[in-house]
Amino acid sequence: MIAIDKLCKSFNGTKVLTDISTEFEQGKTNLIIGQSGSGKTVLLKCILGLYGIDSGTIFFENRSLQEMDNKERSILRQEMGMVFQGSALFDSMTVEENIMFPMQMLTQKTPEEMLDRANEVIKRVNLINANKKLPSEISGGMQKRVAIARAVVMNPKYLFCDEPNSGLDPKTSTLIDNLIQEITKEFQITTVINTHDMNSVMEIGEKILFLENGRKGWEGSNQEVLKTENKSVGNFIYSSNLFRKVRIAYQEKS
Amino acid sequence: MQILHDIGGYFLMLSQVFKRFTRWNVMKNLIIREVDSLIVGSIGIVSFISFFVGGVVAIQTALNLNNPLLPKNLIGFATRQSVILEFAPTFISVIMAGKVGSFITSSLGTMRVTEQIDALQVMGINTYNYLIFPKIVAMLFYPFVITISMFLGILGGYIASIYGGFCSSSDFIEGIQLEFIPFHVRYAFVKTGFFAFILATVPSYHGYFLKGGALEVGKASTTSFVWTSVLIIVTNYIITQLLLA
Asked: Is the dihedral of CA A183, A130, A195, B115 positive or negative?
């Protein structure tokens, strides 16, 4: 579980995040949603420790990130996996090398053991005949799968995804969402996903944190989001006709 | 203020480069890759430029020797002095600031823009050591490039002098042996060492701390070239003052 208590973050005097408090539970897909510029990516990078924070605390199973020294942070980071918006695969490495990379850097495994584990996760994310290809030779959807495979290869306790389905077609997008949810359940990971994809919200949003101008606007589940009277969430989620119709249908049904 | 910020940032970066070392089995491959791209990949252009500039130095010296009382061996002497003292170490380093420096800045800058550096950080890797240390080690081979430049510069001067009919082979060879001071070669290699460090680290700083997108990668490469060149020229002046004056 990850708990955030009164987190504030500013850049050059401009407040980006103000008094954010929430909890992300283990074995659930926790979503951070909000408009562009609402502070989603900054919040994610604060949790990852890539950005320092002005005040507040971030707890990883009661371990405060702010009180950790470099060694403890280094150990914590080995428990984290991250899927970046643009996949962030290493251009000069093949798919297989990209996935083996964290093991090469952080474990004492033999090359055979690393290859076995890499093949195991490659199979898990349904990557076929891509082991020896470079990231530039595979599609965006496949790149996301490689990024997910690289993120879970070390059996992380925490998985972070920054807009994992941006730039993907709806079908691939759903496949990636389902894959992340399956992995979360299978390995009981605490997963935090940054998204503004409403399909993801409805499909896998077990816990949703809505950010509005750097503040917590609302939180709840994908079931609760259909019932909420919160105007900002409503405006954000039901800005598309399709979702307005879904909401009307749901309200009529209930 | 920005300059002070950059200077502070540069030295903080250097302090991190030599901490929490990457495993040797990974590092050795990184070093080999950097030697290939930074050193081996530069030999061609350095050889080409050195040979022809050496030739031009010899021709220009010959054309300025109008006084019949001046011996022809001065052509070889002037070529050797120009090439060893300034052309090979300094001029080639400024060219390398464009070639190697831009390559380092743009490759690290692209890694920053595409979040590859963030990905390494999330894994708990010391990105300074992983990305910059191999470049510094690779640039330890830079004096070999300068040695090739010195040799080919003088060879270019020799061929231009002989085939241009400016002096005889024996005059030129006599000239390059005339009043040879071994300390001048040591001086050239001392400054080459400093230039190598500047060439590896200043462009790394500009690439590593890049902010923005693809456009900024181009801007950072230009800024990196300017600052690397400025530092090479200033360092050249200081070392020359300290060692030769």
From this structure: positive
Q: Is residue B8 part of a domain?
A: no
Residue range of the domain that includes A159: 2-226
Going by DSSP bridges, is the β-strand pair A190-194/A158-162 parallel, antiparallel, or unpaired? parallel
For B8-28, the pLDDT digits (tens) are 999 999 999 998 899 998 999
Q: Which residues of A touch B (CB under 8 A)?
A: 45, 48, 50, 73-78, 80-82, 84-86, 88-91, 101-102, 104-106, 160
Q: Is the pLDDT of residue B184 over 90?
A: yes
Closest CA to A81 of A106, A57, A62: A106
Per-residue pLDDT, B193: 96
Is A84–B115 a contact, with Cβ atoms under 8 angstroms apart?
yes
Q: A12, A42, A50, A68: best mutation site toward chain B, by most B Cβ within 10 Å?
A: A50
Using the predicted structure, report yes or no on whether residue A178 has a pLDDT greater than 90: no
The answer as to whether B117 is a domain residue is yes
Whether B227 shows a pLDDT value over 70: the answer reads: yes
How many domains, in total, are found in chain B? 1
Q: What is the pLDDT of residue A237?
A: 76
pLDDT of residue A254: 67
DSSP-assigned states of every residue in B136-150: HHHGGGHHHHHHHHH
The pLDDT value given to residue A187: 87
Residue at B4 is within a domain: no
In a domain, B83, yes or no: yes
Residue B70 one-letter amino acid: L
CA distance B54 to A235: 72
Residues 6+ positions from A48 with CB-CB distance below 8 Å: A80, A82, A160, B122
Rounded Cα distance, A41 and A37, in Å? 9
Domain at A153, CATH number = 3.40.50.300
pLDDT of residue B156: 96
Residue A245 in any domain: the answer is no
How close does chain A come to B228, measured CA to CA in Å?
26
Q: What is the mean pLDDT of residues A118-129?
A: 87
In angstroms, the CA B35 to CA B200 distance is 12
Q: Please give the tally of structural domains in chain A.
A: 1
